[in-house]
């Protein structure tokens, strides 16, 4: 009995160390992400004209400035429209590629898997400059250009999520549907899509968030009529760093957190169903 206890002690010690490291990691992430976001949110209510601390007077002055400015509203609308387009395009293409990858039983070690993820590892400055040189005369100044550019980074993320989702689908259910006389297309829409719906929505939200926050390629590809919110924030910071930047940051953070909250709720719902 004593020897059994001695054998268990190292395991308990390892578990305690791992638990402590996990808590430390979470604490560090919360500190380095949470505190700047918290301070930015407070700064949005600053009545002063500069991004400085301490704040002497609080007001909604800069919220009024933001929502009454056609320039900032247009940038917000551009960002939301482009992000929505990226969510649709990247989800369609990434899901189709993931389904084909799973349907034909390709390995993750194959060249096709590497090529599907390749755009994700390309520097944004290289992609932005290359797209501008190649397609600038034809597409620059359009939201479509931004949708296509941002999709280069969003599609690999969708592909990874959906490839893992399709991999966990029980093939016996699909085979049973085919054996009962359903066509492959009917089986895909009625059976497969219902089984991967959570992953599909999560992928679309991830693509939306990636596009909403993308700055480097947008800096190369936008014009005055297609400025996105991150690009306008950068331009405003160079000229005058007023608390309106904190308001724009708060709107971006709120949108991203809302999307992540939806993903979190979908994951909980999925676990309860399974």
Characterise the protein shown here.
The chain has 274 residues and is mostly helical. The protein has twelve helices and no strands. The protein has helices at 2-43, 61-67, 70-103, 111-117, 124-139, 143-167, 171-179, 184-195, 197-213, 216-221, 229-239, 244-273. The longest helix has 42 residues, at 2-43. The relative contact order is 0.13. The mean pLDDT is 86.
Which percent range describes the beta-strand content?
Answer: under 5%
> Over the alpha carbons, how many angstroms does the gyration radius reach?
24 Å
Mind describing the biggest β-sheet? none
* Relative helix content: over 70%
List keywords for this structure.
274 residues; globular
Topology, pairings included?
Blueprint: H1 2-43, H2 61-67, H3 70-103, H4 111-117, H5 124-139, H6 143-167, H7 171-179, H8 184-195, H9 197-213, H10 216-221, H11 229-239, H12 244-273
Helix pairs in contact: 1-12, 3-6, 3-9, 6-9, 7-8, 9-12, 11-12
Summarize the structure.
The protein is 79% helix and 0% strand.
């Amino acid at each position: 009995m004593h020897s059994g206890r001695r054998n268990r002690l190292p395991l308990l010690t390892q578990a305690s160390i791992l638990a402590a490291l996990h808590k430390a990691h979470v604490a560090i992430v919360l500190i380095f992400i949470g505190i700047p976001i918290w301070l930015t949110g407070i700064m949005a209510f600053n009545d002063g004209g500069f991004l400085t601390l301490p704040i002497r007077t609080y007001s909604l002055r800069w919220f009024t400035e933001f929502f009454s400015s056609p320039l900032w509203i247009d940038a917000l609308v551009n960002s939301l429209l482009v992000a929505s387009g990226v969510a649709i395009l990247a989800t369609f293409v990434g899901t189709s590629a993931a389904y084909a990858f799973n349907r034909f039983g390709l390995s993750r070690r194959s060249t096709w898997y590497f090529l599907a993820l390749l755009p994700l590892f390309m520097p944004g400055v290289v992609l932005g400059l290359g797209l501008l040189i190649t397609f600038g005369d034809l597409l620059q100044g359009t939201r479509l250009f931004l949708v296509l550019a941002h999709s280069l980074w969003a599609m690999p993320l969708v592909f990874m999520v959906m490839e893992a989702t399709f991999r966990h689908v029980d093939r016996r259910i699909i085979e049973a549907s085919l054996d009962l006389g359903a066509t492959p297309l009917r089986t895909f829409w009625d059976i497969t899509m219902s089984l991967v719906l959570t992953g599909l929505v999560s992928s679309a939200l991830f693509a939306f968030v990636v596009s909403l926050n993308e700055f480097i390629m947008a800096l190369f590809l936008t014009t005055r009529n297609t400025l996105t919110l991150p690009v306008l924030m950068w331009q405003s910071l160079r000229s005058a760093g007023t608390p309106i930047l904190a308001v724009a940051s708060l709107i971006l953070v709120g949108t991203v957190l809302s999307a992540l909250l939806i993903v979190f709720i979908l994951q909980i719902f999925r676990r309860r169903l399974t």
